[in-house]
Amino acid sequence: MKVLFVGDIVGNTGRSALKQVLPSLRSKYNPHIIIVNGENAAAGRGITAQIAREFFEWGVHGITMGNHTWDNKDIFEWIDEEPRIVRPANFPEAPGRGSALIKANGKTLGIVNLQGRTFLPPIDCPFRKADELVDALRKQTPCVLVDFHAEATSEKIAMGWYLDGRASIVVGTHTHVQTNDDTILPQGTAYLTDSGMVGSKEGVLGMERSAVEHRFLTQLPVRFTVDEGKWQFHGLLAELDDSTGKAKSLVKLRLTEDEWLLL
């Protein structure tokens, strides 16, 4: 099984990049299942039903979320009805679901979304929730992807080691900067501390930089807006053994709009 995971998609800039790049990635790599993180897809904060529908129309099979899951309040009206979207499973009580089985192209992938607790709200323990959900999914498929939406590098690395041999892929999201520690751990888990993002490379983590600079200079409240500059596209491609769920290969994906225009 080939799994394409795309990092945090930030606003209209990120959505436009995804729409442009995805057909070529599908043609080049022929992934069986495509998962994207959509928690910043709507103007940088949350997701809407319309955006989710667009992602699915473009060939995405599943969407993971994060700490901005609830920023668009209409999500409470439809998330229960969309089984292809998972929000952080370790929220104590929330609508929606924290794990799902994604079936496409004759393959079945379990997906889990978890949120870290270091420098983020102190919700339920992601490690104990991982035990519960990964073990349950493995009864239905050996191939399981965990999107760990967390701030601290140490917490993400700990989760990778904790799930080594149980999850097929543990990929970090949230910090929007792709890390250079892609590896296959000893028991067969493909690991990357942060997948990076899809959004403007000319802003600050996808947001317009002057507002961010003003915030740092003054410490006053500032409304952040999505930067409309040239985009960058980050993600990963992992090939899994269908029978064991262990990763056979892991490749980081990193592409800029300028590089794309030259292809």
Automatic annotation (TrEMBL):
Q: Can you name the source organism?
A: Paenibacillus darwinianus
An example Gene Ontology molecular-function term: metal ion binding
Q: Which SUPFAM superfamilies match?
A: Metallo-dependent phosphatases
Q: Which named protein is this?
A: Metallophosphoesterase
Which residues are Fe cation 1-binding?
D8, E39, N40, H176
Q: Where are the transmembrane segments?
A: none
Family membership, please give it.
Belongs to the YmdB-like family.
Pfam families attached here? YmdB
Keyword vocabulary terms for this entry: Hydrolase, Iron, Metal-binding
Q: Where does Fe cation 2 bind?
A: E39, N67, H149, H174
Active site annotation, chain numbering: H68
Extract the PANTHER family matched here: 2',3'-CYCLIC-NUCLEOTIDE 2'-PHOSPHODIESTERASE
The protein's required cofactors: Fe(3+)
